[in-house]
Specification:
This protein is mainly β. The protein contains no helices and four strands.
């Protein structure tokens, strides 16, 4: 997935200024059971390091993710 055009925004709470950052986030859902999904996500924001995090979520009866 190319980074060009994939922006996230960083809000400085002291100055109330938004700064655009290049964003690349990949979600990998590794399992599903009883309405819950889990897996991990890998994110790169701007020139920062790659971050890997776990994720968990649920799916409603109307197939809306939370």
């Amino acid at each position: 997935m190319p980074k060009d055009g994939l922006l996230a925004y960083d809000l400085n709470l002291q100055t109330n200024v938004l700064t655009p950052l290049l964003d690349q986030t990949v979600y990998t859902i590794t399992s599903y059971r009883n309405g819950y999904v889990w897996g991990y996500m890998t994110t790169t924001l701007g020139d920062g390091p790659i971050q890997c995090k776990s994720l968990v979520g649920s799916v409603t009866l109307r197939a809306k993710s939370t």
